[in-house]
Design brief:
Layout lengths: L2 H14 L12 H10 L5 H11 L6 H16 L5 H19 L7 H4 L7 H12 L8 H10 L7 H11 L5 H14 L26
Helix pairs in contact: 2-7, 4-5, 8-10
Length: 211
Protein backbone atom coordinates (compact mmCIF):
# COMPACT_ATOMS: atom_id res chain seq x y z
CA UNK A 1 0.00 0.00 0.00
CA UNK A 2 1.41 3.39 -0.95
CA UNK A 3 1.80 6.34 1.47
CA UNK A 4 -0.94 8.39 -0.19
CA UNK A 5 -3.49 5.64 0.34
CA UNK A 6 -2.47 5.18 3.98
CA UNK A 7 -2.78 8.92 4.53
CA UNK A 8 -6.28 8.99 3.07
CA UNK A 9 -7.36 5.98 5.16
CA UNK A 10 -6.43 7.74 8.38
CA UNK A 11 -7.91 11.03 7.21
CA UNK A 12 -11.26 9.33 6.68
CA UNK A 13 -11.12 7.46 9.98
CA UNK A 14 -10.35 10.74 11.76
CA UNK A 15 -13.15 12.56 9.96
CA UNK A 16 -15.57 9.86 11.07
CA UNK A 17 -14.37 9.92 14.68
CA UNK A 18 -12.23 12.99 15.48
CA UNK A 19 -11.73 12.24 19.18
CA UNK A 20 -11.68 8.46 19.70
CA UNK A 21 -11.59 7.04 23.20
CA UNK A 22 -11.07 3.65 24.78
CA UNK A 23 -14.33 1.85 25.51
CA UNK A 24 -12.90 0.62 28.81
CA UNK A 25 -14.09 2.72 31.75
CA UNK A 26 -11.40 4.01 34.10
CA UNK A 27 -10.45 7.06 36.16
CA UNK A 28 -6.71 6.58 36.65
CA UNK A 29 -3.74 4.84 35.03
CA UNK A 30 -4.04 2.09 37.65
CA UNK A 31 -7.71 1.46 36.90
CA UNK A 32 -6.91 1.38 33.19
CA UNK A 33 -4.09 -1.12 33.77
CA UNK A 34 -6.39 -3.44 35.74
CA UNK A 35 -9.13 -3.11 33.12
CA UNK A 36 -6.78 -3.97 30.27
CA UNK A 37 -5.39 -6.99 32.14
CA UNK A 38 -8.96 -8.18 32.68
CA UNK A 39 -9.87 -7.58 29.02
CA UNK A 40 -7.61 -10.33 27.66
CA UNK A 41 -9.92 -12.82 25.91
CA UNK A 42 -12.92 -10.86 27.22
CA UNK A 43 -15.15 -8.07 25.93
CA UNK A 44 -14.82 -4.49 27.09
CA UNK A 45 -18.49 -4.63 28.09
CA UNK A 46 -17.93 -7.56 30.46
CA UNK A 47 -14.90 -5.84 31.97
CA UNK A 48 -16.80 -2.58 32.48
CA UNK A 49 -19.61 -4.43 34.24
CA UNK A 50 -17.09 -6.01 36.62
CA UNK A 51 -14.98 -2.92 37.29
CA UNK A 52 -18.11 -0.81 37.90
CA UNK A 53 -18.50 -2.89 41.07
CA UNK A 54 -14.81 -3.40 41.86
CA UNK A 55 -13.36 0.11 41.50
CA UNK A 56 -15.71 1.86 43.98
CA UNK A 57 -14.48 -0.67 46.57
CA UNK A 58 -10.82 -0.97 45.52
CA UNK A 59 -9.13 1.36 43.05
CA UNK A 60 -5.54 1.33 44.34
CA UNK A 61 -2.92 -1.42 44.56
CA UNK A 62 -3.13 -1.30 48.34
CA UNK A 63 -6.91 -1.71 48.37
CA UNK A 64 -6.89 -4.63 45.95
CA UNK A 65 -4.16 -6.38 47.95
CA UNK A 66 -6.30 -5.93 51.04
CA UNK A 67 -9.13 -7.78 49.28
CA UNK A 68 -6.89 -10.77 48.62
CA UNK A 69 -7.70 -13.47 46.10
CA UNK A 70 -10.86 -14.61 47.88
CA UNK A 71 -12.12 -11.03 48.03
CA UNK A 72 -11.20 -10.11 44.47
CA UNK A 73 -12.63 -13.14 42.66
CA UNK A 74 -16.32 -12.39 43.32
CA UNK A 75 -15.92 -9.09 41.44
CA UNK A 76 -14.29 -10.61 38.35
CA UNK A 77 -15.63 -14.17 38.18
CA UNK A 78 -17.90 -13.29 35.23
CA UNK A 79 -14.75 -12.72 33.13
CA UNK A 80 -12.84 -15.52 31.43
CA UNK A 81 -9.69 -16.85 33.11
CA UNK A 82 -10.68 -14.99 36.27
CA UNK A 83 -8.59 -17.14 38.65
CA UNK A 84 -5.38 -16.59 36.68
CA UNK A 85 -6.19 -12.92 36.28
CA UNK A 86 -6.85 -12.55 40.01
CA UNK A 87 -3.45 -14.03 40.85
CA UNK A 88 -1.73 -11.82 38.28
CA UNK A 89 -3.51 -8.68 39.50
CA UNK A 90 -2.51 -9.32 43.11
CA UNK A 91 1.11 -9.98 42.12
CA UNK A 92 1.03 -6.91 39.88
CA UNK A 93 -0.23 -4.76 42.76
CA UNK A 94 2.51 -6.02 45.06
CA UNK A 95 5.16 -5.25 42.43
CA UNK A 96 3.76 -1.76 41.83
CA UNK A 97 4.05 -1.04 45.54
CA UNK A 98 7.48 -2.59 45.98
CA UNK A 99 9.13 -1.27 42.81
CA UNK A 100 7.17 1.85 41.84
CA UNK A 101 5.73 3.37 45.00
CA UNK A 102 2.25 2.18 44.07
CA UNK A 103 2.24 4.16 40.82
CA UNK A 104 1.90 2.80 37.27
CA UNK A 105 5.19 3.41 35.44
CA UNK A 106 5.04 5.26 32.12
CA UNK A 107 7.75 3.01 30.73
CA UNK A 108 7.31 0.02 28.43
CA UNK A 109 10.16 -2.06 29.85
CA UNK A 110 8.86 -1.59 33.39
CA UNK A 111 5.27 -2.37 32.44
CA UNK A 112 6.01 -5.66 30.71
CA UNK A 113 7.81 -6.86 33.83
CA UNK A 114 4.52 -6.72 35.72
CA UNK A 115 2.65 -10.05 36.09
CA UNK A 116 -0.07 -10.45 33.47
CA UNK A 117 1.18 -7.50 31.40
CA UNK A 118 2.33 -8.22 27.86
CA UNK A 119 3.37 -6.00 25.01
CA UNK A 120 -0.19 -5.20 23.94
CA UNK A 121 -1.34 -4.27 27.45
CA UNK A 122 1.71 -2.07 27.99
CA UNK A 123 1.13 -0.25 24.72
CA UNK A 124 -2.53 0.39 25.55
CA UNK A 125 -1.62 1.86 28.93
CA UNK A 126 1.16 4.03 27.50
CA UNK A 127 -1.09 5.34 24.74
CA UNK A 128 -4.35 5.83 26.62
CA UNK A 129 -3.13 6.82 30.09
CA UNK A 130 0.07 8.64 29.21
CA UNK A 131 -0.50 9.86 25.66
CA UNK A 132 2.49 8.09 24.16
CA UNK A 133 2.43 7.31 20.41
CA UNK A 134 2.23 3.54 20.75
CA UNK A 135 0.03 1.19 18.73
CA UNK A 136 -1.25 -1.89 20.54
CA UNK A 137 -2.11 -4.73 18.16
CA UNK A 138 -5.00 -6.91 19.30
CA UNK A 139 -7.00 -9.37 17.19
CA UNK A 140 -9.12 -6.60 15.66
CA UNK A 141 -6.16 -4.47 14.61
CA UNK A 142 -4.24 -7.51 13.38
CA UNK A 143 -7.20 -8.41 11.15
CA UNK A 144 -7.77 -4.87 9.85
CA UNK A 145 -4.09 -4.28 9.13
CA UNK A 146 -3.81 -7.51 7.16
CA UNK A 147 -7.19 -7.44 5.44
CA UNK A 148 -6.94 -3.86 4.22
CA UNK A 149 -3.26 -4.09 3.29
CA UNK A 150 -2.48 -1.22 5.65
CA UNK A 151 0.28 -3.11 7.48
CA UNK A 152 0.30 -6.81 6.64
CA UNK A 153 2.26 -9.12 8.89
CA UNK A 154 2.33 -12.69 10.18
CA UNK A 155 2.59 -11.75 13.87
CA UNK A 156 1.20 -8.93 16.03
CA UNK A 157 4.76 -7.69 16.56
CA UNK A 158 5.36 -7.45 12.80
CA UNK A 159 2.09 -5.60 12.29
CA UNK A 160 2.95 -3.25 15.16
CA UNK A 161 6.36 -2.44 13.69
CA UNK A 162 4.85 -1.67 10.30
CA UNK A 163 2.05 0.45 11.73
CA UNK A 164 4.49 2.49 13.81
CA UNK A 165 6.78 2.89 10.80
CA UNK A 166 4.18 3.71 8.15
CA UNK A 167 1.45 5.60 10.04
CA UNK A 168 1.81 9.36 9.42
CA UNK A 169 2.97 11.10 12.60
CA UNK A 170 -0.19 13.18 13.00
CA UNK A 171 -2.28 10.01 13.28
CA UNK A 172 -0.10 7.76 15.45
CA UNK A 173 -1.61 8.76 18.79
CA UNK A 174 -5.18 7.85 17.78
CA UNK A 175 -4.43 5.07 15.27
CA UNK A 176 -4.95 2.34 17.88
CA UNK A 177 -8.46 3.54 18.67
CA UNK A 178 -9.54 4.05 15.07
CA UNK A 179 -8.34 0.63 13.96
CA UNK A 180 -9.73 -1.31 16.91
CA UNK A 181 -13.14 0.36 16.60
CA UNK A 182 -13.13 -0.22 12.85
CA UNK A 183 -12.39 -3.90 13.40
CA UNK A 184 -14.93 -4.22 16.20
CA UNK A 185 -17.88 -2.63 14.42
CA UNK A 186 -17.21 -2.58 10.66
CA UNK A 187 -14.37 -4.85 9.51
CA UNK A 188 -15.68 -7.77 11.54
CA UNK A 189 -14.11 -11.21 11.47
CA UNK A 190 -16.87 -13.39 10.03
CA UNK A 191 -18.55 -10.91 7.72
CA UNK A 192 -17.05 -7.46 7.21
CA UNK A 193 -19.63 -4.74 6.72
CA UNK A 194 -18.06 -3.40 3.53
CA UNK A 195 -21.11 -1.42 2.32
CA UNK A 196 -20.88 0.70 5.50
CA UNK A 197 -17.09 1.14 5.36
CA UNK A 198 -15.67 4.64 4.81
CA UNK A 199 -12.43 3.24 3.38
CA UNK A 200 -13.93 0.51 1.18
CA UNK A 201 -12.48 1.97 -2.04
CA UNK A 202 -8.99 2.16 -0.48
CA UNK A 203 -9.07 -1.32 1.08
CA UNK A 204 -7.15 -4.07 -0.73
CA UNK A 205 -9.37 -6.91 0.55
CA UNK A 206 -10.53 -8.89 -2.46
CA UNK A 207 -13.62 -10.59 -1.05
CA UNK A 208 -15.63 -7.49 -0.17
CA UNK A 209 -19.19 -8.09 0.96
CA UNK A 210 -22.24 -6.55 -0.66
CA UNK A 211 -25.42 -5.24 0.89
Amino acid sequence: MNPAKRLEIFRRLRAQNPHPRSELQYRSPFELLIAVVLSAQATDRSVNLATAKLFPIAHTPQAILKLGEAGLIPYIQTIGLFRTKARNILALCRQLIDAHGGEVPADHAALVKLPGVGRKTANVVLNVAFGQPTIAVDTHIFRVANRTGLAPGKTPEEVERKLVKFTPAEFVHDAHHWLILHGRYVCQAKKPRCPECVIVDLCEYRRKTRA
